[in-house]
Amino acid sequence: MRIDKVYNHDAMPNNGLITNSMLPQFKIDTKFDISSYLAERKALIEKALDNSIRIVYPENIYEAMRYSLLAGGKRLRPILCLASCELSGGTIEIAIPTACALEMIHTMSLIHDDLPAMDNDDYRRGKWTNHKVYGESIAILAGDALLSYAFEFVATQTKNVLPQQILQVIASLGRAVGAAGLVGGQVVDLASEGMSDVSEETLRFIHTHKTGSLLEACVISGAILASASQANLQRFSRYAQNIGLAFQIVDDILDITATTEELGKTAGKDIEAKKATYPGILGMEKSRIQAQRLLDNAKAELEVFGEKALPLMALADFIINRSN
Ligand code: GRG
Questions:
Q1: Is the CB–ligand 1 distance for residue 111 below 6 Å?
Q2: Domains of the chain: which residue ranges?
Q3: Is the minimum distance from the CB of 209 to ligand 1 under 6 angstroms?
């Protein structure tokens, strides 16, 4: 596999404005067709998610859960989980309940993140946010219900996996979402809002916890289900930590360069909320270089797997080159 970095230099002079066409594009010389792979995996996950929640009494809570869970999105977290499971010799079937649970957890974090008490957003995945449609109390409860259901789902729906591995997956999910993960990152993010002197170290803490922890849990849990060795779990962990930070650097860049329509959520929110971001601290060019370095590090961790790692390699490229 050969990868050439192609910067779009002719697009640079633009009165200082940076647009998506100026972002680095990475030409990937490989037979792996990431577009078809993503489309096929996304369809599989959408179907499993659709089947995961039935509407029963009290209907409004199940409707609110389904509203956000089935609102689209790239489905990167479940796709990463399935990919690491397959790379480790497992099947899609053993990982699909965990993959769905990861999307339930991600969705609940988006619902809560959008609440007036947090980021106060009206728009997510191209639709009204949950609290705008169902009200704040139901949105909070829909998030809570999705979170607890995610754990129930892994425990009750995972088949043909040893109980101790299921337990390990549940423990890794719990750690990823709690104070040592998403919640911790969100706390520091909220505390840093409006502060002009947020250090790169603090920003790194926010991103590695708010975003990186769950991405790491995705890759690790897929591998645990397939009985990956400790050495390989550590490789996956380092791969995921690198793509997790790169993911968020790209998110910060897109908040400036992409439109609300492209993002499916309000663009320019970071500046409006006076949030510390990578482009804000390092500048746009250094942020892009940093994202590229992290991408290279992530892929280096997978070289030992050879061709089998193509999906996870291509997913890392996709995360860096995405436009939303
Ligand atoms: C997890 C218990 C618990 C509480 C939540 C609100 C909160 C605590 C944490 C915030 C987590 C958060 C929203 C992080 C941002 C992650 C991120 C980059 C989201 C966007 O992910 P994409 O681009 O979105 O994959 P799609 O819509 O494609 O899935």
A1: no
A2: 9-18+53-321
A3: no
| Mean local confidence (pLDDT), 218-234 | 98
Nearest CA, atom 26, ligand 1: 73
Cα–Cα dist 71/141, whole Å: 18
Atom of ligand 1 nearest to the CA of 124: 27
Q: What pLDDT is stored for residue 273 in this prediction?
A: 76
Global pTM reads 0.89
| Cα angle, residue 21 at apex, residues 120 and 211 outer, rounded to 5° | 40
- Closest atom, ligand 1, to C-alpha of 183: 8
Amino acid identity, position 324: N
Tell me the fold of 9-18+53-321.
Farnesyl Diphosphate Synthase (1.10.600)
Question: Is the Cβ–Cβ distance between 102 and 214 less than 8 Å?
Answer: yes
Closest to 98 in 3D by CA, of 156, 53, 55, 36 = 156
Hey, is 226 helix, strand or coil? coil
Cβ 189 under 6 angstroms from ligand 1: no
Tell me the pLDDT tens digit for each residue of 161-202.
999 999 999 999 999 999 999 999 999 999 999 888 899 999
The helix (H) or strand (E) run that includes residue 123 is strand 123-124
